[in-house]
Model the fold of this input.
Amino acid sequence: MNDVMLAYGSIILGTLINGFAALLLKRGAKDFKLRALLHNRFVISGFCLYLFSTAFFVSAMKSLPLSIVYPLSSLSYVWVVVLSCFALGEHVGMNKWIGLTIILLGIMLLSNW
Done:
């Protein structure tokens, strides 16, 4: 497997981890109190996952230009909507699906896929 394919895989995995981090922060927001931040395991876990996902983006930057890596990070928006739909039971209307399709088309154009 060459470095470029590994970089694309890192971005996809990093954005998926980002999506799960957002779910944890959403769960932690239910019980969020600024004074008790260090005791909210969901918020702390979400922050840790965000930090972990950053490592995947940094590794991808080693093999790909920033002008490709950064737009690909918008895959996180897609993951968050899909995960919110299935994990949280949030309603995803037609406008959101159209928006996600536009994001995916933009990623394809910017990444030369």
